[in-house]
Amino acid sequence: MPRIIISEPGKTPQPYRLKIDRIVTKIGRGSDNDIIITAGSASTYHCKMKRIEGGFVLADNNSTNGIKFEDTQYAIIDLEDGKKVQIGDDIDLEFTLSDEEKEILSLEDFEPQQKASFPKSKEQPKATLEDDDEIILEEAPKRVTKKYDPELEEQEEIKRRPSQDRYTVKKSNTGLSFIIFMILAVLFFVGGLTIRHYQEHKTFIFSK
Description:
- The chain is α+β, with helices and mostly antiparallel strands.
- Helices cover about 30% and strands about 25% of the residues.
- Strands 1, 2, 3, 4, 5, 6, 7, 8, 9, 10 and 11 form an eleven-stranded mixed sheet that branches.
- The termini are far apart.
């Protein structure tokens, strides 16, 4: 059976034996994993060891600190007899096979699965305003100042008045026009009488 040894900081290395036909072995801090590790750099469901055609691989499970081989982080690592890999930052995993197991696996076609892991994107720090930073302010809209015009102001005031006030002003103007008309009519009437009296009597009306 394949043998793995898990070494955590401050703890005695723990060996595990697995059946050669076991498909998946879950490794992580969660209590429902097949192999439980307690180191702080491990995630709850950190990685999985999988049985594939011709061998075994260790696959990262989108953990925080990943899995590494020779200080390089990988998404998948091919496991070979005597290979040592790192889980998280400080957990070692050593994988070994017996001669019988190596012979069994050699009869199967193995295709390498190992591939590097792309670095996880980190949140960009928020920009801070330094003393030398330039602040661009939008120009405030210009305020248009109107020149004061008394006549125009009076017209605007009349427009702003209620309709009843405008009716009162219109009615007042109409009354004034009627008075002027009556005065002119009386003057024309008196003038007409004076001219007619002069034509008939050759004297003015008020002459003695």
